[in-house]
Amino acid sequence: MSGDRPSAQELEAASGATIGDVLAPGLKVLFCGINPGLWSGATGCHFARPGNRFWPVLHASSFTPRQLAPQEQSELLELGLGITNLVDRATSKAAELTDEELQAGAQALSEKVQRYQPQWVAVVGITAYRAAFGAKRATFGRQERTIGEAGVWVLPNPSGLNAHWSAGTLAAEFGQLRQAVMAGEECRCG
């Protein structure tokens, strides 16, 4: 890879690639993306595409003391935060995933949550959440569902393709979860 920008060939070769979770026991929040994009697959970093607003929004909503770069993703663990995905394989668009893959991803996520026991699971992408968990009427925010003892929160997808959400409105949504975490809002409902 030349610099921080994967070549067209590297992006093409990243189709189907997987990247490791940023995960540890007892996290405050485990952010769960839909699946890695090709840029993430090529770099091995979550939310790596420059147009993705995850990292700026994480900082703007006070989850991080400064804006981290995707290559600094392991620093999230020190803050009690982690990242995983519903589906491991990288694609150019989330629309390439099947409902069956998303449902299998929900099962795999449930197993990770049981093992690592975060306080909250924040699924980043409502359409994927609805398909994965069979929750056709789900809205953004705190869900009635829990995964094990972890509360579940649905956030908008920070992808640059999700243009009807500005960085400010994304930060406000992420900030609501941050307030719940800071307030120690009871999320262990099991």
Automatic annotation (TrEMBL):
* A Pfam family recorded for this sequence: UDG
**Which terms are listed as keywords in the entry?**
DNA damage, DNA repair, Hydrolase
Mind telling me what this protein is named? G/U mismatch-specific DNA glycosylase
- Whether DNA damage counts among this entry's keywords is yes
One annotated GO molecular function = uracil DNA N-glycosylase activity
Which stretch is the leader sequence? Answer: none
Give the matching PANTHER family.
Answer: G/T AND G/U MISMATCH-SPECIFIC DNA GLYCOSYLASE, G_T MISMATCH-SPECIFIC THYMINE DNA GLYCOSYLASE
What biological-process GO terms show up in the record?
base-excision repair, AP site formation
* Positions of the Uracil-DNA glycosylase-like domain: 19-186
Entry annotated with the keyword Transcription regulation:
no
